[in-house]
Write a structure and sequence with these properties.
2 helices, about 70 residues, two-stranded antiparallel ribbon
């Protein structure tokens, strides 16, 4: 997550270069807007793990989250 929207867009573009389709979503926390760069959804754990390894191999820290889409 980034405080500056430009930084989030830069990371989204970097992910695109790596072949990922990323989205930027905004969230407010403690009165501060954070711009989160997200990948997915993934259909299987194997697919998720492959993506996580590729992201890590490129020096990008990531966290896996589960989002319920109801």
């Amino acid at each position: 997550a980034f405080k500056a929207p430009e930084d989030a867009e830069q990371m989204r573009a970097r992910m695109a270069i790596l072949g990922f389709e990323a989205k930027v979503s905004d969230a407010e926390r403690d009165g501060v807007t954070l711009h989160r760069v997200r990948l997915g959804p993934y259909g299987s754990i194997e697919e998720l793990n492959k993506a996580k390894v590729r992201v890590s191999e490129n020096g990008i820290d990531s966290t896996v989250i589960r989002v319920n889409s109801r």
